[in-house]
Amino acid sequence: MWKKSLKLMIGFVCGYLYIKLIFIHPPFSVSEFFIGLIMSPLRFFLAVLMFFSGFVLIAKFIKETLQHTRRERQEKRYWNIELFFEFTSLILIFLFLFQIDRVHTLIFFSFSLMYGMISMDI
Fold it and tell me: Lower CB count within 10 Å: N or C terminus of the chain?
């Protein structure tokens, strides 16, 4: 459980830093966005690093949680407090990041969800 919690916390921090490092101003312009990325390559590199490591960690957490859910269902145990905390912590992190920036959070969690579900062993 501690390893999962650590993965989730580091993934949350990486997602938060990714949101803070990439700026999207309200009147979105593609040219301004790319110029901003080119003019500050270190910020862009850190944002990409945070995005990649964060979505991989969150995806691993999702994968392990779904596999844990599947094991519990196969053993006919439908109520598990550990699973409850795993799902609620994931939802709370999503909601917190969603309050900061909606577009970045949707991109971040959609990548995490897709990668986590693709990497599951069925």
Answer: C
